[in-house]
């Protein structure tokens, strides 16, 4: 059988045929991204779907085995319901040890860069990712890797703005892990000064640590800006993420008490709301940190009686439907 024939006959965990269309955005030392097609014509006359294959080529044999074991649970049909802002695992290819997800956008994931991001966009990111975390937490899953490299911008048919989706739930710490010392994205309760270690069976992410990580994402969006690019090394991206951390002391120049405005994109009302969200997320004591559900309730107040109100109501209805499904 030729390579082309083999790439056209990839059988998934659910018994569905797929074809491999080639690489689109390998990120060295982190993950590989390949376009593919999913053939489900037995159930749908127009059942060819564009998908993306996501693999983690750096895994050793032990972690590959853990990935295969997790995949059977992560792609269960009973977990197909999810809000729009979660990148759902549609299926798994045992042969290539890759997940099958909806077709990821051409721009691939975000990367931090010095620039500007308007507060309105920061709030859009906050709303979308809080929807994702509220769903995951309500279903008992701590994400563990809420970082810019797992945030994907998608065009939306139902909204005039770009939507932001969260990828990678369920993989930390069994499959993926990060060194934690001096990593601002890691919540303070999971760090110990002077010690270099990784997530392990004894160090697991929590709902509270997810909220800290989201606060760091939003702070980076506000302070440094983002652009759409998946071509650079993910290792470099993580190093960039670690370079800047907000100073949480009152009155600090680069802190959040107050959140310093930028030269443009900081209108008074959305800027105050962005600052308030960060105050509630970046609380060193995890017991006092706000939950995703409570933060969504807070954001509803900001979105009522605005052009975003209809989208907000639809998002919340979709979230409730996903939780019931």
Average pLDDT confidence is 80
**Largest sheet data:** 6 strands, antiparallel
CATH topology name of the largest domain, in short, is Transferase(Phosphotransferase), domain 1
- What's the N-to-C terminus distance? 42 Å
Q: What is the helix/strand order?
A: HEEEEHEEEHEEHEHHHH
How many strand units?
10
Strand ordering within the main sheet: 1-2-3-4-6-5
How much helix is in the residues?
A: 25-40%
By helix and strand content, what is the structural category?
alpha+beta
Number of helices: 8
Extract low-pLDDT stretches: 1-5, 227-240
State Rg: 20 Å
What is this structure, in a nutshell?
Helices cover 34% and strands 15% of the residues. The protein has 325 residues and is of the alpha+beta class.
Structure commentary:
The chain is α+β, with helices and mostly antiparallel strands. It folds into 2 domains: 3-102, Phosphorylase Kinase, domain 1 (2-Layer Sandwich), CATH 3.30.200; 110-324, Transferase(Phosphotransferase) domain 1 (Transferase(Phosphotransferase), domain 1, Orthogonal Bundle). The chain is 34% helix and 15% strand. The chain is built from 8 helices and 10 strands. It has helices spanning 3-7, 61-74, 119-138, 207-224, 234-243, 268-281, 292-303, 309-324, and strands at residues 10-11, 17-23, 32-39, 48-55, 89-93, 98-102, 110-112, 151-154, 163-166, 226-228. The strands form 3 sheets. Strands 1-2-3-4-6-5 form a 6-stranded antiparallel sheet, with helices on one face. Strand 8 and strand 9 form a beta hairpin. Residues 1-5 and 227-240 have low confidence and may be disordered.
């Amino acid at each position: 059988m030729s390579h082309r024939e083999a790439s056209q006959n990839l059988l998934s965990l659910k018994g569905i045929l797929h074809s491999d269309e080639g690489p689109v955005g390998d990120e060295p030392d982190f993950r590989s991204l390949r376009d593919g097609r999913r053939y489900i014509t037995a159930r749908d006359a127009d059942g060819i779907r564009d998908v993306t294959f996501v693999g983690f080529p750096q895994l050793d044999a032990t972690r590959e085995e853990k990935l295969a074991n997790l995949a059977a649970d992560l792609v269960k049909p009973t977990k197909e319901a999810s809000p729009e802002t979660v990148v759902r695992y549609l299926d798994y290819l045992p042969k290539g040890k890759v997940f099958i997800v909806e077709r990821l956008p051409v721009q691939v994931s975000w990367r931090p860069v010095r620039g500007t991001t308007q507060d309105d966009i920061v709030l859009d990111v906050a709303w979308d990712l809080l929807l994702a975390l509220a769903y995951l937490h309500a279903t008992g899953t701590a994400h563990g890797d809420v970082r810019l490299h797992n945030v994907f911008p998608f065009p939306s048919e139902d909204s005039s703005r770009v939507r932001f989706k969260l990828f990678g739930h369920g993989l930390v710490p069994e499959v993926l892990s990060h060194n934690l010392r001096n990593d601002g994205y890691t919540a303070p309760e999971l760090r110990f000064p002077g010690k270099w270690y990784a997530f392990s069976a004894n160090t697991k992410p929590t709902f509270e640590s997810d909220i800290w990580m989201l606060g760091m994402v939003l702070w980076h969006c506000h302070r440094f800006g983002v652009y759409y690019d998946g071509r650079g090394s993910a290792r470099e991206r993580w190093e960039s993420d670690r370079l800047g951390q907000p100073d949480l002391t009152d009155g600090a120049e680069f802190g959040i008490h107050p959140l310093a405005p930028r030269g443009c994109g900081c209108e008074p009302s959305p800027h105050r709301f962005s600052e308030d969200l960060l105050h509630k997320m970046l609380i060193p004591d995890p017991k006092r940190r706000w939950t995703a559900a409570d933060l969504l309730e807070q954001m509803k107040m900001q979105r009522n009686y605005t052009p975003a109100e209809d989208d907000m109501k639809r998002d919340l209805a979709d979230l409730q439907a996903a939780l019931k499904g």
